[in-house]
Amino acid sequence: MIEENVKRLLKEAGENPFGEKVTVVAAVKTQTVEDINRAIAAGITDIGDNHVQEFRDKYGAIEGAPRRHFIGHLQTNKVKYLIGKTYLYQSVDRMELAEEISKRSERAGIVSDCLIQINIGNEETKGGFDYSDGVAAYKNICALPALKVRGLMAMLPFTDDESVLRPLAKKMRTLYEELRAKDDGIKYLSMGMSGDWKLCTECGSNMIRLGTSIFGPRHYNAIR
Questions:
Q1: Measured between alpha carbons, how far is 108 from 102 in angstroms, rounded to an integer?
Q2: How many helices (H) and strands (E) does the chain have?
Q3: 87 domain-assigned
Q4: Which residues span the domain enclosing 52?
Q5: What's the rounded Cα separation, in Å, for the pair 220 and 146?
Q6: Of 90, 79, 20, which Cα lies nearest the Cα of 52?
Q7: Which helix (H) or strand (E) holds 162?
């Protein structure tokens, strides 16, 4: 099933209407090492973790050298475990976190790449910068010595109402275009999960984070 899902999703994702390849990041929260490796063998090139402990426990057992993303809420005191091992910190949702990643990266002699998380739905239960503060957040993070902004990340509200979701997704593309006009290093708009990824790519997302669509229901007894 996993292999079939991966091949189908990679084909369906293809390119967005802007002619940009859509990167499929497999969200591996609670998945077994065996299933993660099956997805990679089937063609997944990027995997995303939500929990630092899970990332650490499974790190050495993941095969195929996929690009590693951190896509969950990240506590500053756990950044040290990810430095030098993470291709993209997708969930930079506050300056305190950006500063810690930059500080730890500088100590390690590297520059880390990140996405700025935008709370596009202004939801109290989700982290992220306000949409209106997106440009200011970009400028402030760019001033840090060892952290490079590569784009934006967002989670749309949990609803099936496209009249709510589509305008928000389009707003994210607008902000992405504004930043990209300032910086040719901006290349990712990470927006879309298993329930809404098609709408998001139609509106200009070029990176989607899929868990259930690849693996089916989560395995809460997986290696943590």
A1: 10
A2: 8, 8
A3: yes
A4: 2-215
A5: 36
A6: 79
A7: helix 162-182
Number of domains comprising the chain: 1
| Paired strand residues for 97 | none
Q: Are 163 and 180 in contact (CB under 8 A)?
A: no
166 to 13, 160, 204: CA distances (angstroms): 18, 10, 11
Could you tell me if residue 78 is left (phi over 0), alpha (psi between -120 and 50 degrees) or otherwise beta?
Answer: alpha
Residues with Cβ < 8 Å from 176, sequence gap 6 or more? Answer: 151, 152, 186, 189, 204
Cross-strand pairs, 208 = 24
Whichever domain contains 146, its CATH number is 3.20.20.10
Span between the terminal Cα atoms of the chain, in Å? 23
In a domain, 224, yes or no: no
Using a CB cutoff of 8 Å and minimum separation of 24, what contacts does 72-80 make? 72/29, 73/127, 76/100, 78/52, 79/104, 80/104
In a domain, 223, yes or no: no
Residue 221 has pLDDT above 60, yes or no: no
Whole-prediction pTM value? 0.95
With bands split at pLDDT 50, 70 and 90, how would you rate the model's confidence at 217? confident
CB atoms within 10 A of CB 43: 14
Non-local (6+) Cβ contacts of 178 within 8 A are 135
